[in-house]
Amino acid sequence: MRVVTFFTKENCPLCDKAKVIVEELSKELNFQIQEFDIYKDDELLEKYQVMIPVIAINAQELGYGIIDKFDLKEKLLQKLD
């Protein structure tokens, strides 16, 4: 199955909103979500501390910060084919 990576942290309102969007799109586009808390990995924390939430596929970032559902869907459709 295709996998979309979701970088997040606890107590993050933007992450909570993005997670809802990613979960909705996962049902629609049939992919799994692999979620990582950046505070559990020093390398991820250094890389994404001011960008989260970050959505990526195959190590390519598709969106970060305020996630727009329609923009993300369009990018996912291009990458998941």
Folded structure, characterized:
The radius of gyration is 12 Å and the shape is globular. Helix 1 links the parallel strand 1 and strand 2 (32-37). With 81 residues, it is an alpha+beta fold. 21% of the residues are buried. The protein is built from 3 helices and 4 strands, in the order E-H-E-H-E-E-H. The protein has a 4-stranded mixed sheet with strand order 2-1-3-4, covered by helices on one side. InterPro entries: Glutaredoxin-like (IPR008554), Glutaredoxin-like_YDR286C (IPR052565), Thioredoxin-like_sf (IPR036249). This is Glutaredoxin family protein.
What descriptors fit this protein?
81 residues, alpha+beta, Glutaredoxin, four-stranded mixed sheet, 3 helices, 4 strands, 26% strand, globular
Brief rundown of the structure:
44% of the residues lie in helices and 26% in strands. It has 81 residues and is of the alpha+beta class.
SSE layout and pairings?
Elements lengths: L2 E6 L4 H17 L2 E6 L4 H7 L5 E4 L2 E5 L4 H12 L1
Parallel strand pairs: 1-2
Antiparallel strand pairs: 1-3, 3-4
Helix pairs in contact: 1-3
| Total individual domains | 1
SS field, number of helical segments: 3
CATH superfamily: Glutaredoxin
Say what the CATH topology is.
Glutaredoxin
Which regions have little confidence, pLDDT < 50, spanning 5+ residues? none
Mean pLDDT score: 95
- Helix amount, in percent? 40-55%
Order of helices and strands: EHEHEEH
Largest sheet: 4 strands, mixed
Tell me the strand percentage band. Answer: 25-35%
User: What is the level 1 CATH name?
Assistant: Alpha Beta
Over the alpha carbons, how many angstroms does the gyration radius reach?
12 Å
| Class derived from helix and strand content | alpha+beta
Oligomeric status of the shown chains?
single chain
Number of strands: 4
Which strand order does the major sheet show? Answer: 2-1-3-4
Pfam families: Glrx-like
Protein name: Glutaredoxin family protein
